[in-house]
Design a protein that fits this description.
This protein is α/β, with parallel strands linked by helices and about 230 residues long. The protein is built from 8 helices and 11 strands. The protein is elongated and about 60 Å long.
């Protein structure tokens, strides 16, 4: 598998590339926004390790541009461990967030987990699923409504809603959701799930504060329901 390492720090790129190549991955290197976007378009990597502090164009903005052309998994790598930065990275389409300095074993574990999710049936569902007034289209990554409207979902939003709809009426804990949608557990997991649940509600619920489909079951988790009309 090919991994794109995007960072303007030459020493960091060299070290990260060595770790990945030693683990058996092929590495593509990019040092600015132009190089990243060209590599994504021309090489179609299996994963992008993207530094937030890129020159001229931030890693967050590069991620937004990537998401217009590709759903390649993205792991942000940055020296900032602030919660708001982590939330922003995940909200705009990142799959994970790794803070420098990191242990080599942690980097490889996160890479393996993201790639495992990418290759699982849940990550890339091939059939439509319908529950009540909602239908998920796995080709366009959209949720379709009975009235003809459609809303585009990010890859993680799509996996999350697909998993919830697969288990309509069943309460799913945050740890179950992380295992199936993100592929592993890590510190801050409950907040991560809550962030994405709120994002989904903002896209599919008429009233985000009184959801009809994605219901919170206190102290247990979340469930998708189809309410009587």
């Amino acid at each position: 598998m090919e991994i794109l390492v995007a960072d303007d720090d030459l020493a960091s790129v060299k070290l990260t590339s060595f770790l990945l190549e030693d683990a058996g991955y092929k590495v593509i290197k990019a040092y600015d926004a132009t190089g990243v976007l060209q590599a994504v378009e021309q090489r179609s990597p299996d994963l992008v390790l993207l530094d937030v502090g890129m020159p001229k164009v931030s890693g967050f903005d590069i991620c937004r541009q990537i998401r217009r052309i590709s759903d390649v998994p993205i792991i942000f790598v940055t020296g900032s461990g602030q919660l708001q930065d982590r939330v922003t990275g995940l909200q705009i389409g990142g799959d994970d967030y790794l803070v420098k300095p990191f242990e080599p074993a942690e980097l490889l574990a996160r890479v393996e987990a993201v790639l495992r999710r990418r290759n699982s049936d849940l990550v890339n569902p091939v059939t439509r699923i319908s529950q009540g007034p909602l239908t998920l289209d796995p080709i366009e990554h959209t949720v379709l409504f009975e009235d003809g409207r459609s809303v585009v979902l990010t890859p993680i939003e799509f996996r999350l809603l697909y998993y919830l709809m697969q288990n309509t009426g069943r309460v799913l804990s945050a740890s179950q959701i992380l295992s199936k949608v993100w592929g592993y557990d890590y510190e801050g997991e409950s907040n991560l799930v809550a962030v994405y649940i709120r994002r989904l509600r903002a896209k599919i619920e008429p009233d985000i504060d009184t959801p009809r489909h994605i219901i919170t079951v206190r102290n247990l988790g979340y469930k998708f329901v189809v309410q009587d009309r």
